[in-house]
């Protein structure tokens, strides 16, 4: 059910509009919808269940790489979970990238990515020409450089961040992220670390072995 609009009636008296009772009935139903979506039954926040929208990326051309410039400080106590969800190549090849990283004492400690895709090119395990994701620090902020294993036509992503209730990004840090398409990789002078990438292979990459198990083709 969508939000209900109170009928104010004709000016200046409001004739023909909602009565006080019907107007407040609509207000109550609207508030109930807000409560159901934003709060638990005891009115506490839905910690661990909230997505915060970061932005979108859509390019109607061939793209080799892009840089996601975040507003997340490169400090300890924050381990964001960032999700890029959309399509690559042939318009309708779904892909989801889940990324998380951690800084400690001014140094990058860990950076891990999970890639789930229907694109055989993106799911390749070939070390030399596979998907590359690099975490680097610049001006006190964490940034992500992604290089595709093959030119991607019309990549389109929605970018969001999951609030896990612990080590989460403080509110407001999801605003004003920037995206640079086909920019250079991070300079060697910047602190950086390649993501450890785990790929869920699609069936195009696999075959059933003689023992019935699925193996890389």
What is the topology?
Elements: H1 20-38, E1 50-58, E2 62-73, E3 81-87, E4 94-104, E5 107-117, E6 132-138, E7 141-153, E8 156-163, E9 178-181, E10 192-194, E11 196-200, E12 206-208, E13 214-216
Parallel strand pairs: 5-11
Antiparallel strand pairs: 1-8, 2-7, 2-9, 3-4, 3-8, 4-5, 6-7, 6-10, 12-13
User: How many strand segments?
Assistant: 13
Mean pLDDT: 85
The separation of the N and C termini measures: 48 Å
Strand % is: 35-45%
Secondary structure: helix percent: under 10%
Order of neighbouring strands in the sheet with most strands: 1-8-3-4-5-11
Shape designation: elongated
Tally the helices: 1
Order of helix and strand elements from N to C terminus = HEEEEEEEEEEEEE
* Largest β sheet strand count, sense and barrel closure: 6 strands, mixed
Query: What structural class is derived from the secondary structure elements?
Result: mainly beta
Rounded to an integer in angstroms, the radius of gyration calculated over CA atoms is: 23 Å
Catalogue the unreliable spans.
Answer: none
Total discrete domains: 2
Keywords, separated by commas or semicolons:
single chain; 1 helix; six-stranded mixed β-sheet; mainly beta; 2 domains
């Amino acid at each position: 059910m969508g939000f209900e609009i109170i009928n104010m009636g004709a000016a200046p008296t409001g004739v023909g509009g909602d009565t006080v009772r019907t107007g407040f009935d609509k207000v109550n139903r609207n508030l109930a919808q807000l409560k159901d979506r934003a709060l638990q039954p005891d009115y506490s926040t839905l910690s661990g269940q909230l997505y915060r929208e970061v932005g979108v990326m859509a390019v109607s051309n061939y793209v080799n790489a892009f840089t996601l410039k975040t507003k997340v400080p490169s400090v300890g106590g924050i381990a964001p979970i960032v999700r890029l969800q959309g399509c690559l190549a042939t318009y309708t090849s779904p892909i989801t990238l889940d990324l998380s990283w951690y800084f400690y004492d001014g140094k990058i400690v860990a950076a891990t990515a999970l890639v789930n895709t229907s694109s055989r090119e993106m799911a390749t395990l070939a070390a030399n020409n596979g998907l590359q994701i690099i975490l680097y620090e610049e001006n006190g902020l964490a940034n992500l450089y992604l290089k595709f294993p093959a030119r991607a036509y019309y990549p389109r992503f929605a970018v969001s961040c999951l609030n896990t209730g612990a080590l989460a990004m403080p509110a407001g840090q999801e605003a004003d992220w920037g995206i640079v398409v086909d920019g250079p990789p991070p300079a060697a002078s910047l602190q950086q670390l390649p993501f450890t990438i785990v790929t869920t292979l699609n069936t195009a990459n696999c075959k059933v072995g003689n023992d019935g198990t699925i193996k890389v083709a």
